[in-house]
Specification:
This protein is mainly α and 52 residues long. Helix content is 56%, strand content 0%. It has three helices and no strands. α2 crosses α3. The radius of gyration is 11 Å and the shape is globular.
């Protein structure tokens, strides 16, 4: 059975996981090779993630 995510759910999971790890947006962005603004937009749902 396929599971469906609500729009924005993946971004919220990303933010929660980042915070649990004690990381800043800048630290995560550096690890991912992205600009901090891109990570912020992913977390807030302003930029779609590939899985959404």
């Amino acid at each position: 059975m396929a599971r469906y995510l609500r729009p924005g759910h993946l971004g919220k999971c990303l933010r929660n996981t980042r915070k649990l790890k004690g990381m800043t947006i800048a630290q995560l962005a550096k690890q991912l090779g992205l600009a901090p603004s891109q990570v912020s937009k992913m977390e807030t749902g302003k930029q779609k993630l590939a899985a959404e």
